[in-house]
Design brief:
Layout lengths: L4 H12 L4 E2 H8 L3 H13 L3 E5 L10 E5 L6 H22 L3 H20 L8 H14 L4 E3 L5 E4 L5 H6 L1 H19 L7 E7 L2 E5 L11
Helix pairs in contact: 1-3, 1-4, 2-3, 5-8, 6-8
Length: 221
């Protein structure tokens, strides 16, 4: 089935979580009203992409519903297409309305990156900067960028862009959204976002992502 961008994002978060999630917790991650998120979840359950069950009783009242992605189903190709459609709409809007499209695009990407990292690791930052870099690379892989990192996780070739057509049409906007995504995820995970940089189309068939572009401020990790 074809998912809307909003439902594709909800499904993505469910797929990233290792434990079932309550409506209120998911609404908090997305910054949306409980009823809006509940409607998305119910549609995913009806489509067979998510499952719903009652939480264990805890005091008085009816236990809350818990939701998780159906482990036997996934829709990665649809997700990527919807991300591309959303990126195209966002790029066009920012390019047409912003006084500083690159700054606003980067800020939008940072929100996306923070929300994605927080959904995957609700417990907070990871224990080492290198672990934060690894998980950021994992996020890019899950989004379809086909990253190839060096042994130190400081330089990454992004060999595929799931939004290539949009990026070629609006590179100043789309590539800055992606840089914001990386920086937002890094910062949320405990890495140094200020040292991340993205060079679009740096080599044939790949963009180059640097995760440690500046001298470290403290001990090497």
């Amino acid at each position: 089935m074809r998912l809307s961008a909003a439902r594709a994002m909800v499904l993505e978060i469910l797929q990233q979580r290792s434990e079932p999630v309550r409506v209120g917790d998911l609404a908090g991650l997305l910054g949306q009203h409980d009823n809006t998120v509940r409607a998305h979840l119910d549609e995913l359950v009806e489509a067979g992409l998510a499952v719903r069950r009652r939480a264990a009783p805890d005091g008085r009242g009816r236990p809350a519903w818990l939701y998780e992605a159906d482990p036997t189903r996934s829709e990665p190709d649809v997700r990527v297409r919807e991300h591309a459609a959303l990126a195209g709409a966002l790029a066009a809007h920012i390019a047409a309305t912003s006084a500083d499209p690159e700054v606003d695009a980067r800020a939008a990407g940072e929100v996306w990156g923070r929300n994605t990292a927080r959904a995957r690791h609700p417990g907070g930052p990871l224990d080492r900067p290198k672990a934060a870099r690894q998980e950021t690379v994992n996020i890019m892989a899950d989004l379809g960028f086909d990253p190839a990192a060096d042994d130190t996780l400081t330089t990454v070739a992004l060999k595929r862009c799931p939004m290539l057509d949009v990026a070629r049409a609006q590179p100043d906007v789309v590539c800055q959204v992606h840089l914001g995504l990386i920086r937002g995820a890094l910062d949320e995970l405990g890495g140094d976002a200020s040292r991340a940089d993205l060079i679009p189309f740096a080599e044939p068939g790949a963009c180059r992502l640097h995760l440690m572009t500046r001298a470290p401020r403290g001990p090497r990790d």
